Amino acid sequence: MTNDTWATVQTKLKGALGANNFSSWIQPLEFSKLNAGVMTFHVPTNFIGNYVSQNFGDQIIYHMNQMGESVRRLEFTVQSQTRTVAAATPTAAPAPKPTSTQEISGSPIDSRFTFDTFVVGKPNELAHAAARRVADGGPVTFNPLFLYGGVGLGKTHLMHAIANELKLRSPELNVLYLSAEQFMYRFITALRERKMMDFKQLFRSVDVLMVDDVQFIGGKDSTQEEFFHTFNALVDGQKQIIISADRAPGEIKDLEERIKSRLQCGLVVDLHPTDYELRLGILQSKVEVYAAQYPDLAIAPGVLEFLAHRISTNVRVLEGALTRLFAFASLVGREITLELTQDCLSDVLKASDRKVTVEEIQRKVSEHYNIRLSDMIGPKRVRNYARPRQVAMYLAKTMTSRSLPEIGRRFGGRDHTTVMHGVRRIEELKVTDSQIADDLELLRRALEE
Ligand SMILES: Nc1ncnc2c1ncn2[C@@H]1O[C@H](COP(=O)(O)OP(=O)(O)OP(=O)(O)O)[C@@H](O)[C@H]1O
């Protein structure tokens, strides 16, 4: 048979499988030979070979036989890296394989981000345990390790901690840490400077690859494609990959399905929002560091508890608050008291006040009075609905920054004077009706939680 036969079959497969599948899976196959019913291809990675065999094998055999060839079985052999790349860019010379961490430069690793300085609590214990396991080295058990969670919850800290630990235990390993954005820029630069071979070789020669904030490649098609191939090559080579993102793989916007499914293949763990105990633990550990820096400063009892209670957004904000507090207290030469804390951090404290929405208020109030949300918002004027409606309006006015007309709009398009009347009525009842006063107190607390 000739290469032309394979080319014709490729065209048929493109029509049958679609352009995306074709470019991801069929195009990378390099026909090698057909011998005694066995058709052999060179493939860039084992993964591609396995995938094609499982998903498209029958179709390839079918079309080949339609063309008059006799194919019983497919075989895939992984090309040596030099060959793969040389085939893609015939004029470029193979780049030497980097041999040490210094030669592969990613982003610098922060030596302060270690396991020792990472405070473990319920919300992050699983992520911490998984990171520790990877840092302990040994055979790759889950690949990739995918860490995700909200802003400032310690993903980058854990990745750096792994890198720091690996550097200590196995200095010979090539550990590459970079953000997904840097990955993209390197890829674009390599394309522009016609250095794709160097790029591929660099990324395929690492022992541990860490990519931070991978959600960034969502919607960037060529970068995703390259990331996918890098990923597969490393997994095939039993190299550890560690990925972080702000959300689970399945929820990353505009990320190709095949990448989502690859990212889910290993261990996916999330860092939950911090709880009070974890925040307090983090503050205590940071204070120890500051105590060495500012030996003359005292911190009054209750301050850390107050901060852990009031700043619940993320650890970065918590750290920033503490830094500011110590700097301020050392400038004025005073003990860090609750009063000084409130003065110094008034903006941070205000910003992290929990924002309650009118919708949340409506939901909580309707649950509390056991009525349907639609009845509370709707036009019915019977007292069973009207009183809870007024309570919700009152809470919306006092707990949110919405104006009366805005609140009216959220209550089925009512006029602002109706809202004003409702708010006034509850203000009066609060004083005369203890049941209403209790209801308000209960609801307010539930909404502030
Ligand atoms: N459990 C923890 N113990 C100690 N420090 C922590 C902990 N969690 C977070 N931090 C600190 O909080 C700061 C923010 O953490 P980090 O940069 O790792 O967050 P991230 O999850 O990567 O956030 P982003 O999504 O913004 O990249 C860092 O200074 C980090 O050291």
Automatic annotation (TrEMBL):
Instruction: Name the InterPro entries on file.
Output: AAA+_ATPase (IPR003593), Chromosome_initiator_DnaA (IPR001957), Chromosome_initiator_DnaA-like (IPR020591), Chromosome_initiator_DnaA_CS (IPR018312), DnaA_C (IPR013159), DnaA_dom (IPR013317), DnaA_N_dom (IPR024633), DnaA_N_sf (IPR038454)
What are the boundaries of the region Domain IV, binds dsDNA?
Answer: 330-449
Provide the residue positions that the database annotates as binding ATP: G152, G154, K155, T156
This protein's GO CC annotations: cytoplasm; plasma membrane
Chain intervals for the UniProt region annotation (Domain I, interacts with DnaA modulators): 1-88
Which keywords does this chain's UniProt record carry? Answer: ATP-binding, Cytoplasm, DNA replication, DNA-binding, Lipid-binding, Nucleotide-binding
For region Disordered, the annotated ranges are 87-106
List residues of the AAA+ ATPase domain.
Answer: 141-271
* Record-annotated Chromosomal replication initiator DnaA C-terminal domain positions: 357-426
Name the Gene Ontology biological process terms. DNA replication initiation; regulation of DNA replication
- Signal peptide residues are none
The Swiss-Prot or TrEMBL record describes its family as follows: Belongs to the DnaA family.
What function does this protein fulfil?
Plays an essential role in the initiation and regulation of chromosomal replication. ATP-DnaA binds to the origin of replication (oriC) to initiate formation of the DNA replication initiation complex once per cell cycle. Binds the DnaA box (a 9 base pair repeat at the origin) and separates the double-stranded (ds)DNA. Forms a right-handed helical filament on oriC DNA; dsDNA binds to the exterior of the filament while single-stranded (ss)DNA is stabiized in the filament's interior.
What protein does this entry describe?
Answer: Chromosomal replication initiator protein DnaA
Gene name tied to this protein: dnaA
